[in-house]
Specification:
Structural class: alpha+beta
Helix content: 25-40%
Largest sheet: 2 strands, antiparallel
Strand order of the largest sheet: 1-4
Radius of gyration: 37 Å
Length: about 500
């Protein structure tokens, strides 16, 4: 019985090993062979898409293995995240040459970018966006967060005022978030994502970022109506927008292979440059820089949104500091025992005033008041304006969030012009009229559509736009209407000005 059981087990093992053995492919010499009773029956293997074909080099080139090591520097990290289709045309090559022939300019740009680039790359990767977009501020502003264009676009991402408002970038008397490193980057990436979702194409999204989504949409619609392609290269657009993506592509190509363009990129470590620190009290910019142990200029480069020499905690609850200086700031902030952190507060004007009146009311020198609040000459300060003034030692409360977030300064001209008609006397000319009314001959000639050397007939009507100075009626301030947001001015007697109700009319 044991012998029979042993033979059965051996047969079963042999059968199982035969099932597990791989089927050998038939060679050409076997094609016509007659199988023996012990051979496996022939069959044709089936695949979902037919028989397997050899993998060619072209097919394998698109499948890369993700390296296990971390990027050696930030440039390497950026290269790994390139994901936009490349643009290859003469404009790209022209811009490559332009950048490559200006090594000093490239060096300044890239050195400036080291403070901000890590944060931008982090945000792009977190959102799953192409890392080429981290290079866009090179095109927009040369990575200068204080850059302002002729069209009033501001910051390293170059937001126009209205677009900044749409993306919740505060612009008030104390800060401009279009320049803020964190806020503007968040808004720029939000906008680029929105544009990509609209057009489904990064090149068109970039064109819309530069030219406006409405303009790009209309250009696409015109091409569709004419049966033309609607890619970036196919649309009719202004020269600036036509050159916009080629500029970015040129910078991308230089970053991808700097040796090819005889360019040396400065080392930017794959490490945060700055840390974020919470601010709990109003504090002078100079004191904050001192606590951190950095120069005030360097502090402002990381916090470029600040308009004034004080940080209002209710509106700017965080500041950026170099990574190694953040802890020093916190220690020094806690250890400070020399009184207030801020030497400035905000006073909301109860009525329209001249700069001289506001200076007297706040106890400031007129030039200092103009300088610290950015007041242009020949202007009155309108009622409700939020002025930065010295903070009395008796004031304990910081500026409220309402004022810190919404305070504005508004002006109205000290002098306006009013259209006037005078009658010309005998032998009256453009020159004599101009001399009599202390205005220029060019203005008189322009207003009356005559030449500068022209003469007027006796009794002829002559059009003039003469200045009218707004009279200031001195009145005493009443009760709490003259108080500051966080304390009364140094002087309690104030002069309130009344502006004459004169509408300024423009001449043709």
């Amino acid at each position: 019985m044991k012998k029979l059981l042993h033979i059965a087990c051996l047969a079963g093992a042999l059968w199982l090993s035969g099932c597990a053995a791989p089927t050998q492919p038939k060679t050409p010499t076997e094609e016509g062979a007659t199988p023996s009773s012990a051979a496996v029956f022939p069959h044709t293997p089936l695949y979902p898409q037919g028989p397997l074909q050899p993998i060619t080099a072209a097919q394998t080139s698109t499948h890369t293995v993700t390296p296990l090591f971390a990027p050696t520097d930030l440039w390497d990290r950026i290269r790994r995240g390139f994901a936009m289709p490349n643009l290859d045309n003469d404009l790209v090559r022209d811009r490559e040459q332009w950048y490559a022939s200006r090594p000093d300019y490239m060096q300044r740009m890239t050195e400036r970018s080291r403070k901000y680039l890590f944060h931008i790359v982090e945000e792009l990767e977190r959102r799953g966006m192409p890392t080429e977009l981290a290079l866009l501020p090179y095109v927009e502003s040369a990575f200068n967060p204080l850059a302002v264009s002729s069209a009033k676009a501001a910051g390293m991402w170059q937001f126009m005022p209205a677009t900044g408002d749409y993306f919740e970038l505060k612009q008030n008397a104390f800060r401009d978030d279009r320049r803020d490193v964190l806020a503007s980057t968040r808004a720029a990436l939000d906008y680029l994502q929105k544009l990509y979702n609209m057009f489904g194409d990064w090149q068109l999204a970039l064109a819309a970022y530069n030219w406006g989504e409405g303009n790009v949409s209309r250009a696409i619609a015109r091409n569709q109506k004419a049966g033309l392609p609607t890619g970036y290269d196919d649309l009719t657009m202004p020269p600036e927008t036509r050159l916009y993506v080629p500029k970015l592509q040129a910078v991308k190509n230089i970053v991808a292979n700097p040796r090819l363009f005889a360019t040396e990129l400065p080392l930017i470590e794959n490490h945060p440059y700055f840390d974020t620190i919470d601010i709990s009290r109003d504090i002078d910019v100079a004191l904050a820089a001192q606590f951190a142990g950095v120069r005030e200029e360097d502090f402002k480069e990381l916090n470029p949104s600040l308009h004034r020499p004080v940080i209002l905690a209710a509106g700017t609850p965080q500041i950026l500091l170099p990574w190694d200086n953040a802890k020093a700031f916190e220690r020094n902030f806690e250890a400070y025992t020399q009184g207030q952190y801020a030497s400035w507060t905000v006073w909301t004007l109860p009525s329209t005033m001249s700069v001289a009146q506001a200076a007297r009311s706040s106890g400031m020198d007129e030039r200092d008041l103009r300088s610290v609040n950015g007041i242009p000459p020949h202007m009155l300060i309108k009622a409700g304006s939020a002025l930065l003034v010295p903070r009395p030692t008796t004031v304990k409360a910081d500026v409220t969030s309402t004022v810190a977030d919404n305070g504005q300064i508004a002006f109205t001209p000290e002098v306006v012009t009013r259209r006037t008609t005078v009658k010309a006397g005998r032998r009256e000319s453009v020159t004599s009229i101009a001399r009599r009314y202390h205005i220029t001959t060019a203005d008189v000639a322009s207003w009356n559509d005559v030449k500068s050397g022209a003469a007027f007939r006796p009794g002829q009507s002559v059009v003039l736009y003469l200045p009218v100075r707004i009279s200031q009626a001195k009145t005493s301030a009443r009760g709490s209407s003259g108080k500051r947001t966080a304390g009364k001015p140094a002087k309690h007697s104030r002069s309130a000005g009344k502006a004459a109700n004169i509408r300024r009319k423009q001449h043709k």
